[in-house]
Design goal:
Elements (H helix, E strand, L loop, with lengths): L2 H13 L19 H15 L5 H6 L3 H12 L4
């Protein structure tokens, strides 16, 4: 499984959405992505990549694309 697939799966499993619904997805863009859902997403991402995200990064992760940017720049995850 590629890193993009692992990342996408974290969103799909956390929010119960299809992979095609992830592109362009933003915080509170769907009902499941509220503050509680956000913490579930962070846990899923951390588990998928074996990392522990900094608080600032958790707060900054405001969209599907922003999350990839954070992972690429701060945690050396290649997509």
């Amino acid at each position: 499984m590629t890193n993009k697939e692992k990342y996408t799966n974290a969103f799909c499993e956390t929010f119960e959405i299809l992979p095609e619904q992830t592109e362009g997805l933003v915080y509170t863009g769907i009902a499941n992505w509220d503050s509680v859902g956000h913490m579930g997403l962070i846990a899923a991402i951390e588990d998928a990549f074996g990392i522990e995200m900094d608080t600032d990064d958790i707060i900054d992760l405001s969209s599907f694309e922003k999350g990839m940017e954070i992972l690429r720049e701060k945690y050396d995850v290649e997509f």
